[in-house]
Design a protein that fits this description.
This protein is mainly α. Helix content is 86%, strand content 0%.
Length: 159
């Protein structure tokens, strides 16, 4: 004869143990999640480094280029260009990774949709990486334009 306490413990053990199919699905989800996290972080860091490098070059070496973000500009004045870029770059990548991972985990845990969770993570990583990449491209184009202008003025071709 079992007591109510034994029944509750048995039900708790049963709910904690996963069936074979659920266990395989969880293992598959973890494998995909690790891959998405690795490549997502690599992509985010790479595009953010391109943004940081082009920002540093433009602000350090070309007098016609200024920082458009007033918060970043204030930090660059207070902390110095390279410290400010390092702090802002690290913080933005950290925030992006946390947002992607936490959102994916919540979608999987609360809604029980593992594929949707993976899609959400990929979407966040790709969207933010595209944004960082576009900013780096824009910075590069500004640097090129300003360099042509400065060289034209230097050799007397300016109008």
């Amino acid at each position: 004869m079992s007591t109510q306490s034994d029944t509750i413990q048995s039900n708790a053990r049963r709910s904690r143990s996963l069936s074979r199919g659920e266990s395989e699905t969880l293992g598959e989800w973890k494998r995909y999640n690790r891959s998405i996290r690795f490549y997502g972080v690599v992509l985010l860091v790479g595009t953010k480094l391109a943004d940081v490098a082009t920002t540093a070059v433009g602000l350090q070496y070309l007098p016609g280029i200024t920082e458009a973000n007033p918060v970043a500009d204030h930090l660059f004045v207070e902390w110095g260009l390279f410290t400010g870029l390092t702090v802002l770059g690290t913080a933005s990548v950290f925030f992006a990774v946390c947002a992607a991972e936490l959102f994916g985990l919540e979608v999987r845990r609360r809604l029980g949709l593992p594929r949707t969770a993976l899609f959400a993570q990929v979407s966040i990583y790709l969207t933010l990486s595209a944004l960082f990449g576009l900013v780096a491209i824009r910075n590069g184009l500004l640097i090129a334009d300003q360099t042509v202008y400065v060289l034209g003025e230097t050799i007397g071709l300016g109008g």
